[in-house]
Design goal:
- It is a single chain.
- By secondary structure, this protein is mainly alpha-helical.
- It has five helices and no strands.
- The relative contact order is 0.07.
Length: about 140
Amino acid sequence: MSGKYLVVACLVWLNILFSVLVVFLSKWIYTQYGFPNVTLTCLHFVAAAVCTHFCERIGVFHRKSLPTTDVIRFSLTFCAFVVFTNLSLQTNSVGVYLVFKIATTPTVVALEAFRCRRKITSDVLLAVVSRLVFF
């Protein structure tokens, strides 16, 4: 395995680790302090925006231009997804929450295939299957 792939693999596992840690921390905050769901969600969005801006500034990625209607549709869908998953975390166990999160990716791929009539490549299919098997 080349060094580039090893770095990518390590970063993927770090992402998974930190994602799970954020879930456990959020659940702990909900149960121990009764922190409002919407407030915690807003704090997550602010932290994500700051980190995204920082990553853009150091050259991790470059901003792309998209049609405003696409950005609005994507933003509303993403916000609803985060709010509903956080509500799920507030009322369910961490295990149930993670199962719903894991099921999101294959659900979106299936919707794109059947509803939007997009052809799913073998790379995407392999990524979805590996996500289900290895997580």
